[in-house]
TrEMBL record:
GO terms for biological process: fatty acid biosynthetic process; lipid A biosynthetic process. It comes from Sphingobium psychrophilum. Belongs to the thioester dehydratase family. FabZ subfamily. This is 3-hydroxyacyl-[acyl-carrier-protein] dehydratase FabZ. Its EC number is 4.2.1.59.
Length: 158
């Protein structure tokens, strides 16, 4: 996220535009749409949590709860969309690699039927490596939070 800093909010973005930014596909695509995106600054994305998610078959059959690691992954995917859109890399083949997680905390179970509001901000930008702070909310209530680092790079060569 280098060069001139654009601060004009963009959005909404539908799932097709999200898929142009990320290589993830079902069942690992965890962003359904983007509400707003301010390049080089922040993103507000949505994950509609459905009872049909494959992970609910085993986590847990009698009380379905979205695994915390997937909530963090959803925040990381939102950060990926933010990075790719900020650098105009959609459909470029570049990947955003998740490098580290710090301070992950889980406050409220995420159950089927929830709209998971994902709010991610850039906290540090060093070109190809960026730090982010993310929060996942349900109806305004904090469900999870984490700080994480990602790197933008070419995919591995075959």
């Amino acid at each position: 996220m280098t060069g001139e800093v654009e601060t004009t909010a963009r959005g909404p973005m539908d799932v097709r535009r999200v898929m142009a930014a990320l290589p993830h596909r079902y069942p690992m695509l965890l962003i359904d749409r983007v509400v707003t995106l301010v390049p080089n600054q922040s993103i507000h994305a949505i994950k509609a949590v459905s009872v049909n998610e494959p992970f609910f078959q085993g986590h847990f059959p009698t009380r379905p709860i979205m695994p915390g690691v997937l909530i963090v992954e959803a925040m990381a995917q939102a950060a990926g969309v933010l990075a790719v859109e900020s650098m105009n890399l959609a459909d470029s083949g570049k990947l955003v690699y998740f490098m580290s997680i710090d301070g992950a905390k889980f406050r409220t179970p995420v159950e089927p039927g929830c709209l998971l509001d994902l709010h991610v901000e850039v906290t540090q930008n060093r070109g190809a490596i960026c730090k982010f702070s993310g929060k996942a909310l349900i109806e305004g209530k904090l469900a999870a939070e984490a700080n994480f680092v990602a790197m933008i790079s070419d995919p591995p060569k075959d």
